Amino acid sequence: MDTRALRCFLAVAEELHFGRAAVRLNMSQPPVTQQIKKLEEQLQTRLFDRNKRFVRLTLAGVALVEEATRLLAQMDELAIVVKRAERGEGGRLRIGFATTALLAGAGELYQSIRKTLPCINETWVELYSAEQVDALERDQIDIGFARTPLEHHGLSSHVIATHSLLLALPASHEAAECETVALSSMSAETFVLSSRGPGFHDSVISICQSAGFNPKINFRAQHLFAILNLVSVGVGIALVPEYMAKLNIPGIRLKRMSDVSAVTHLSVMWNPANRSPIVAQVVRQMQEVAPSRPEA
């Protein structure tokens, strides 16, 4: 249905005069009359009773006023939404996040940006960091918050936060009350580590090797939460990002290491093949709010 015809109809319905409606629409009267005739033909009903002395709405015309008003308002809103999306100010944004990304500061950073983009409709999907790479390549998410370094060939990333790695010890460990602990002194200990794969797992192995040993790994867990819980019951020790201290898990002591300096990064990742203006706008703002730091 032609929105121009509906606008002509509403103008005549409000003025109850074709001439005044034409002036209001900045049109001559014949095109207005033609639009009304066209609309009546489409709907197969009369919308106005009219003669030389008066114009009045029929029952069908009265019913159409409300629906036409609603439809035109929706069309106007649709145009606004489309323009916002074109400018990257609104629309859908699919966000992947690692379990601990919110602890690491992704939530606070996104909320600060969200205030400037109130028309974005976002959905959050919990995914392991490696799973986010696959989801970005398959166009299942638009951006991801993941721990890096991480292999992500063909994708782009921007470091938004850097955190030190701490040594997690059971409270009963003989070094639990030391201010700092040498990682090299832990060579005989059993480690709790995440599942095998590129990313955090390989980083921990590399850090231990830089301290002069290969870690003995008898226990594995998917989440950092589970790793710390295993440490708390005394089955081993672990390396975890410093933000995990926010959980205040009982039975654990988190210690800085005196002989190695190790960090992990929180990065936002995206697929440059995704041409969404919303993605470009969000990434641009994150780059401004959190200037990039090189990955160690």
From TrEMBL:
Belongs to the LysR transcriptional regulatory family. One of its GO terms (molecular function) is DNA-binding transcription factor activity. Residues 1-58 form the HTH lysR-type domain. This is LysR family transcriptional regulator. Keywords: DNA-binding, Transcription, Transcription regulation. One of its GO terms (cellular component) is protein-DNA complex. It comes from Bosea caraganae. Pfam families: HTH_1 (PF00126), LysR_substrate (PF03466). The lineage of its organism: Bacteria, Pseudomonadati, Pseudomonadota, Alphaproteobacteria, Hyphomicrobiales.
